[in-house]
Amino acid sequence: MSKVIYSSPENLKELFQLLEQDQAATLWAGGTDLTVKLENKKIKVSHIINLKNVKELDFITASETIRIGALTSIRKLETSNLMQTEYPLLAQASHGLGSWQIRTLATFGGNLANAAPSAETATPILVLNGTMIIKGKNTERKVPAAEFFRGPGQTVLKQGEVLTEVELPKLTSDFKSIYLKHSLRRSMDIALVGVACALRLDGDKCLEARIGLGAVAPTPIRVPKTEQFLTDKTLTTSMIAEASRLAVEECRPIDDIRATASYRRELVQVLVKRALTSLVKDGGSDENTD
Amino acid sequence: MKIPISLTVNGDKFELLVAPTRKLVDVLREDLGFTGTKKGCGEGECGACTVLMDGEPVSSCLVLAPQAHGKTVVTVEGLESENGELDPVQESFMSKGAIQCGYCSPGMIMTSKALLKLNPHPTEEEVKDAISGNLCRCTGYQKIVDAVLDASEKRGR
């Protein structure tokens, strides 16, 4: 007989009451990571709090900024017209996550709070200078995306707190963006390297560059030196090649079961080059330009 | 602690008690007898357990049974019409030889159904993209893609 308790709050108020009553409770959204961990006995649960009925966290709204609720499914991010036009890199990254069956279940907040260094939606959020809205029972704080991730599986979220939404500033119309990922299988494979890139362009002159890398450091990272190097430069082939070499110097990959660190460095160079080239060339296709 | 849930499967409503960590796939197969849905890896990698939940494909091995409360689920058994006629997608899988051992077929067929509902005339690339979360160990992929395209053409006629 199972001793696990199950609760399904319908709103944030009920959720925070439950969290206060039982500090050992496990927050459960899409469950695509947690179910596997549970199945493999990597986590123990005593109390599951199902988040999927907290409908107030399932939204995408646009006004001065774009706000995305934490319970928004990855599938919704992938197929949303707003995402596809405003943030192609986030729509593309979402498309690359898991499989259709996974994306239906998996949530934006779950992908971020799970804090895998390879998390698909994390690098776009870094590149978009997102702000994480974190709520507790009577508290609310805003944390820049760049400060949210602390290590593999680690975030700044404290006991009793919940990531409720992410706020993203709009990009001006001269920005173009792309997300590229390399993995061994098309679906259901964790990225060996993921690259999120947004450039503000005037023709082939780069006015601003933002590049995020996934799976090459303990957290998703930006590469500020590479970004600075690209700023106010004309993006010639040699300039792009130099920038992709710089990005390699800024990452800190490790050897693991999926790939060696040196192979990951090679991938960073290739993917950064490919991302920059395709943005300069035609504004966001993922054609193989290498 | 067992949780009372109610869900609709293939048009029939069921009420049952489930443990919080029980998976939807086990409820479908073991409690309700819908063994058409296969359980492969049990961790969302293979797509064999794909069912439609509120019209969207999901890996039923990743859904906690209580999370399916109030949902409408369609399994491969639900595709057959009342007078026993198979769905056009099932017909195409047979006529195009898209079935070898058959283990991946229910999942493949459910994902294909979802695709064709959303996009009645997909390109070959769109078919491959949609079913990329379904593994076939017999490597019958080409015939599976052919079958989905065939079913799509039938719809057009």
Molecular structure report:
The complex is a heterodimer of chains A (290) and B (157). With 290 residues, chain A is α+β, with helices and mostly antiparallel strands. Chain A folds into three domains: 46 residues; 113 residues, 2-Layer Sandwich (Uridine Diphospho-n-acetylenolpyruvylglucosamine Reductase, domain 3); 105 residues, 2-Layer Sandwich (Enolase-like, domain 1), CATH 3.30.390. Chain A has a five-stranded antiparallel β-sheet. In chain A, strands 11, 12, 13, 14 and 15 form a five-stranded antiparallel β-sheet that branches. In chain A, helix 2 links the parallel strand 2 and strand 3. In chain A, helix 10 packs antiparallel against helix 11 and helix 11 packs antiparallel against helix 12. Chain B is α+β, with helices and mostly antiparallel strands and 157 residues long. Chain B has two domains: 77 residues, Roll (Ubiquitin-like (UB roll)), CATH 3.10.20.30; 69 residues, DNA polymerase, domain 1, CATH 1.10.150. A five-stranded mixed β-sheet of chain B has the order 2-1-5-3-4, sandwiched between helices. In chain B, strand 3 and strand 4 form a beta hairpin. The N and C termini of chain B lie far apart (53 Å). The chains are: A alpha+beta (290), B alpha+beta (157). The interface between A and B is medium-sized, with 30 and 32 residues.
Fraction in helix of chain A: 25-40%
Alpha plus pi helix count of chain B: 5
- CATH fold-level assignment of the largest domain in chain B: Ubiquitin-like (UB roll)
CATH architecture of the largest domain in chain A: 2-Layer Sandwich
Query: In CATH, what is the class of the largest domain in chain B?
Result: Alpha Beta
Strand content of chain B: 15-25%
> Most extensive interface: pair and counts?
A-B, 30 and 32 residues
Q: What is CATH's topology name of the largest domain in chain A? A: Uridine Diphospho-n-acetylenolpyruvylglucosamine Reductase, domain 3
Measured as a percent range, the helix fraction of chain B is: 25-40%
Determine the structural class of chain B based on helices, strands and strand pairing. alpha+beta
Largest sheet of chain B: 5 strands, mixed
Q: For the residues shown, what is the average pLDDT of chain B?
A: 96
Instruction: Give, in order, the helices and strands of chain A.
Output: EHEHEEEHHHHHHEEHEEEEEEEHEHH
Low-confidence stretches of chain B: none
- The rounded distance between the terminal residues' Cα atoms of chain B is 53 Å
